[in-house]
Amino acid sequence: MIFIAGGAGYIGSHTNKSLSKKGYKTVVFDNLVRGHRDFAKWGEFVAGDLEDKEQIRQCFRKYLPNAVMHFSSFAYVGESVSDPAKYYENNAVNTINLLEVMREFEINHFIFSSSCATYGVPEEIPITENHPQKPINPYGRTKLMVEEILKDYDAAYGLKHINLRYFNAAGADPEGELGERHDPEPHLIPLAIFASLGLRDDIKIFGTDYPTRDGSCIRDYIHVTDLADAHIKALEFLKKENRSESFNLGNSRGYTVREVINTVMKLSGTNFSVIETSRRTGDPAELIGSSEKARTVLGWNPKFSEIDTIIKTALRWHKRDIKKQPLASDL
């Protein structure tokens, strides 16, 4: 049995589906503050909060998990700057609650949803796992803080863990059962899709004078189903090798903001207003991760790496989720 904290959220729900398809038994533990009950379609579901150790204990007693996957973090960078206490409490303190109950029940395998935000401003591209970790916002600092806590729990208590440092999670379940649903929605691909569907007046490009091929920022987008697959491979590695590791998860290549917007226009068959505005503070020109270690050590092979594929699956999902109607077969 796999305990999935935050399994009703975007990445957690896709991972839950992939685990279930592989034959794993799962229990989703989610307070639904930012998750969605209709995303928890596989395994068992428990409405619970990591701030309450007794709720975690009750779930462990009932389902007897032998491994934990942790997705229950707040992940809005801007919000972490304006309300850091919220992030330190949920992302750090509540993780300690979970780890402490794991110790009580002698559960020693932990897969952690970390982030490339732990690296901060890149000193070299592509970013490898050996890149210095110098986060520039509270969100990134909470992720790094948990990674450091996990090192100490490994050394002192033998709790083995895998840190999975995502780059830009994107796309939706290719079978159309799950997708991205955030409120507010901060990510470029869904925002551009909303503009294509007439749900926004425009889409903004923040900075057009970066030293990139078209002046806009470059980001590394990784399909959410490929992320889910990496979690399963990380779990299998941990059970076999019983040693802690960290892995970057990305496509090892990037697309500019303009390229993403143009691809949404092409696939949706629409044109929408694009507004060019000034840079945002703290936005690096380029963020691309090396996933060579994950490919070599875990045998991880992303299957949905093309930007057209990523956006096509997202477009299918958002049409279904927002308009609540059947989709054209060619999307």
In brief, what are we looking at here?
40% of the residues lie in helices and 18% in strands. The protein is α/β, with parallel strands linked by helices.
- Let me know the largest β-sheet: 7 strands, parallel
Name the average pLDDT. Answer: 95
Order of helices and strands: EHEEHEHHEHEEHEEEHEEHEEHH
The portion of residues forming beta strands comes to 15-25%
Distance between the termini: 36 Å
Count every beta strand, where a strand is a DSSP E run of 2 or more residues: 14
What is the CATH C-level name of one domain? Alpha Beta
Q: Could you explain the architecture of this structure?
A:
- The structure is a single chain.
- The relative contact order is 0.14.
- 40% of the residues lie in helices and 18% in strands.
- α1 crosses α7 and α4 (84-104) runs parallel beside α5.
- The two termini are 36 Å apart.
- It has a domain at 2-170 and 223-249: NAD(P)-binding Rossmann-like Domain (Rossmann fold).
- By secondary structure, the chain is an alpha/beta fold.
- α1 (10-21) links the parallel β1 (2-5) and β2 (26-30).
- The strands form four sheets. The chain has a seven-stranded parallel beta sheet with strand order 3-2-1-4-5-6-11, sandwiched between helices. A three-stranded mixed beta sheet has the order 12-9-14.
- The protein is built from ten helices and 14 strands.
